[in-house]
Specification:
Elements: H1 2-39, H2 45-70, H3 76-110
Length: 111
């Protein structure tokens, strides 16, 4: 039974790592969307805004998948680290989203 439980825990950790990597990729995409909003073609600023919004949605969805998978993992240290890292990245994505929205709105209003 212990061997089976260990195998299940290991599989769940891997299943958790996949959406966690997706979360990190979404944050990176939001960095790119912000750069595009700030320095890209002014006629494409709305595309940068949409990209930021979509990446934020992807990040939030990935975080939900991390959280649901953590419920089935017994390794408390792993779970605590993943919870903390996930919340930190979500905080970053929220800050990026606000900056993307403000940048896009300013460019739409002021050209």
């Amino acid at each position: 039974k212990a061997e089976r439980d260990s195998a299940i825990d290991s599989a769940m950790k891997e299943a958790t790592n996949i959406p966690f990597q997706t979360l990190k990729c979404c944050r990176d995409i939001m960095d790119l969307a912000l750069e595009a909003a700030k320095y890209g073609n002014p006629n494409s600023v709305s595309d940068a805004g949409v990209g930021g919004e979509m990446a934020n949605s992807g990040a939030r969805g990935a975080a939900l998948n991390v959280r649901i998978n953590l419920k089935d993992i017994d390794d408390e240290l792993f779970c605590k680290k993943m919870e903390t890292d996930t919340e930190n990245i979500l905080s970053e994505t929220y800050d990026l989203l606000i900056e993307i929205r403000e940048t896009v709105e300013a460019k739409l209003i002021n050209g």
